[in-house]
Amino acid sequence: MSGTSPVGPKAWIARIAQDGDREAFAALYAHYAPQVKRYLMRSGADPVTAEEVAQDVLLTVWRRAPTYDPSRANPNTWIFTIARNRRIDRLRKENRPEPEATEIIETMQPTQATDAQVAQARRAAAVRQALATLPQEQAEVLQSSYFEGRSMRELADATGVPLGTIKSRSRLAMIRLRQVLEDQQSSP
User: Fold this and answer.
1) Averaged over 20-43, what is the pLDDT?
2) Are 17 and 65 in contact (CB under 8 A)?
3) What average pLDDT does the segment 69-74 reach?
4) Of 34, 68, 95, which one is at a domain's C-terminal end?
5) Residues 73 and 33 in one domain
């Protein structure tokens, strides 16, 4: 700092903006860092966080010094507005955890188009409606084997019905379902 240069926050910011003056920044830092840190601690930040945010605030002042307009705000207002905004940003980040990698990947997966979803829902409704037309013993066989994943042997053992009868019910149910679904498609 030369002895004839003006001293004070406005002058320091002007010299930082014009020349990237490191001595002016050192003076500005020495003046504001403790004040900003106290402000942040009074706002609820722990000392380590307050120190980190204060450094970030003053680094922002260094970078944005050319945008400072003394006719719009005095240096205190400008710097403490930056500090307040950084404190709010930090609180938001702490209250909103970073998404897990799996969440990010899931959001990147392509989803079915709406038309495809509608068509799938219609097919599912048609199958449910067709199942409702089956005799109870045939519907039970399909429910157990296709929807619950049980084998025909497991179903026969569980119900005490011969395996041949279970297979016959399944075959008759599939034939009946196919007919009902074909009839639904051909009707307007």
Assistant:
1) 93
2) yes
3) 90
4) 95
5) yes
Q: What is the CATH number of the domain that holds 143?
A: 1.10.10.10
Q: Is residue 38 a part of any domain in this protein? A: yes
Buried residues in 27-60 as b, exposed as e (16+ CB within 10 A):
bbbeebeeebbebbbeeebeeebbbbbbebbbee
**4 located within any domain:** no
- Closest-CA residue to 22 (of 65, 53, 54): 65
CA within 13 Å, CB half, 126? 17
Question: What is the CATH number for 32?
Answer: 1.10.1740.10
Q: DSSP letter for 144, please.
A: I
Highest mean pLDDT pick, 25-39, 83-97, 108-122: 25-39
| 146 occurs within a structural domain | yes
Task: Quote the tokens at residue 34.
Answer: 């403790």
User: Residue 28 half-sphere exposure, CB side, CA atoms within 13 Å?
Assistant: 28
Tell me which residue has tokens 């601690």. 41
118: amino acid identity, one letter? V
| Encoded amino acid at 6, one letter | P
Q: What is residue 27's three-state secondary structure?
A: helix
Q: What mean pLDDT is predicted for residues 5-16?
A: 87
